[in-house]
Amino acid sequence: MTTTIPGYCTLCRSRCGTLNEVDREMLIAVRPDPSHPTGQAMCMKGHAAPEIVHSPHRQLYPLRRTTPKGSAGPGWQRITWEEALSETARRLGEIKAESGAEAVAFAITSPSGTPLSDSIDWIERFIRHFGSPNICFATEICNWHKDFAHAFTFGCAMPTADYENADTILLWGHNPANTWLAQAHAIGRGRKKGAAMVVVDPRPIALAHQADVWLPVRPGTDAALALGLIRMLIETRRYDEDFVRRWTNGPFLVRSSARSFTGRRD
Question: Does this UniProt record's set of keywords contain Zinc-finger (predicted)?
Fold first, then answer.
């Protein structure tokens, strides 16, 4: 007997709402759940969830290597989770006591494109508590500017854009139709309400064909475009001068011999 269980896909940060078909405790199909806030569509990875869950190559238990590296075979031996956790904790403690926490480097996969999203905060908390400054992240090209530019500029991470209620949507090197379907759906709702859309991308992605303006910049020239837009904003005075003076380092970027934002010499 097949049962349909509502839920959401955990294979990336988008968290698309899903309807999961289960037959005798076996996941056989996953499809979008339109009643869910993020369930309007699903990517290929979400549809392939049954293959991932029931793959014969899926690793379900911890294994201990029993032969030296370089041997013909690793000689994997299945151990319990208690053994794996205890042995890992003991070895980390020994290295820290002998050589300091800095002797340990932690490698973490991307929380954006894997199920690690639910755990990343706890993993980072553990690493900080351990005391090692050595963290190696595997992430997407689009991820660093998203996380760090917001933190450096505003002091904290920013929420997702309110595409549905925007007057103009600017997608700069961002392709949510392939990477974040829930946001792509929100863009569609915003466009139906009349929002203009500008796409900055060297590739003719699907959203570029739908945009009012597509700027196919040459790779490596994004900074020149950004500086040009900044200059235009300054020359046309389309910025909040009081905010810039009080809350940014903009005034410190103007030489005393040059004219200030207001046109006066400071």
Answer: no
> Structurally, how many domains does the chain consist of?
3
| Exposed/middle/buried for residue 217 (C-beta within 10 Å: 0-12, 13-18, 19+) | middle
**Can you tell me the distance from the alpha carbon of 122 to that of 35, in angstroms, rounded to the nearest whole number?**
31
Residues 153 and 214 occupy one common structural domain:
yes
Q: Are residues 179 and 97 in the same domain?
A: no
The Cα 113–Cα 220 span in angstroms is: 25
DSSP 89: H
Domain check: are 148 and 86 in the same one? no
Same domain, 208 and 225: yes
- Rounded-to-10 torsion of CA 109, 207, 182, 51: -60
DSSP 161: P
In a domain, 266, yes or no: no
Residues 220, 203 share a domain: yes
Residues 257, 262, 265: CA angle, nearest 5 degrees:
25
Both tokens of 47, joined, read: 């549809």
Cα Dmax for the chain: 80
At 5, the amino acid letter reads I
75 vs 107: CA distance, rounded Å: 24
Q: Which amino acid is at 243?
A: F
pLDDT value at residue 259? 55
Residue 178, domain CATH: 3.40.228.10
What stretches of 193-256 show up as alpha helix (H) in DSSP?
Answer: 206-210, 222-235, 241-247
Flag residues of the chain having pLDDT under 70: 139-144, 146, 254-266
Domain that includes residue 21, residue range = 2-53
